[in-house]
Amino acid sequence: MNAPFKTVLFGFAFSPTLRANILETSRIAHFFGAKLILLHVGEKTAKKEARIKDILSIMEHQELEVSIQWKTGKPDEVLLATCQESNIDLLILGAMQHENLYQFYVGSIARKLTRKVCCSVLLLIKPSEERVPCQHVVVNGLEDEDTPLAISNACYVSHALGAKRLTIVEEIGQKEVAVEITDDKSLKKATIQKERLKHREDSRVRKILKSVPGEHLENLKVKTQSIFGKHGYSIGHYAEVIRADLLVMNAPKKIGLLDRIFPHDIEYILSDLPTDLLIVRKTS
């Protein structure tokens, strides 16, 4: 899996950030060596078409393979169907940072897409017309069958975008440290337990890193960071505090009507995005 994102779809609206979003998305597709599909769910007019072509005429990488599609219908349904039909590897959506400001594709639609779409999703909250280099990527390292893919993708993206640092965050629930602290002895016991858990998690992550292609780790400083707290909330807060450029997370599980994992993990982050968010999903 040297190039996981071969076909990228950007679902766009004619918002004030359209220009920055398209220029940012075209750069990302270039760095990934992917072809780019631009999709607008709405009426096609000569004025809209001219605006898109005007933006494409000034993108940095004119050799990029770009196609434009215009479709009508409900945005989430059209995007889901297009991702399936066009074998999309990565769906990119522009986003506002805070939930009460969400417009168009974000909020409830982003939740539907994140749950149901067949591919990975990248939410951009800070697109730029001029390139701002990606410096620091954070990825979840929780114990889960999909985590090796998330870490592998995070290494690939870091390499492709030229990031210098990658932090793998191991979120450990407080319940795993089942010690009530009442005195110095219990405090010492809790501290020892935490150190054991951190060592266990570090060993597991090191095994995952051994399967990552060597070229994706070149010039990349990788470190692990254990955090005790709620899954999703803790890593989102950490990414915000250290001012990460990109947060990479596993896709939420599909477990039917009782979809309990999503509200406890990605939900925290979607409600107040700390930075650009890549949600990695295994494709068949």
From TrEMBL:
Residues 5-123 form the UspA domain. InterPro entries: Rossmann-like_a/b/a_fold, UspA. Pfam families: Usp. SUPFAM superfamilies: Adenine nucleotide alpha hydrolases-like. It comes from the Bacteria. Belongs to the universal stress protein A family. PANTHER family: STRESS RESPONSE PROTEIN NHAX (PTHR46268), UNIVERSAL STRESS PROTEIN UP12 (PTHR46268:SF6). This is Universal stress protein. It comes from Flagellimonas algicola.
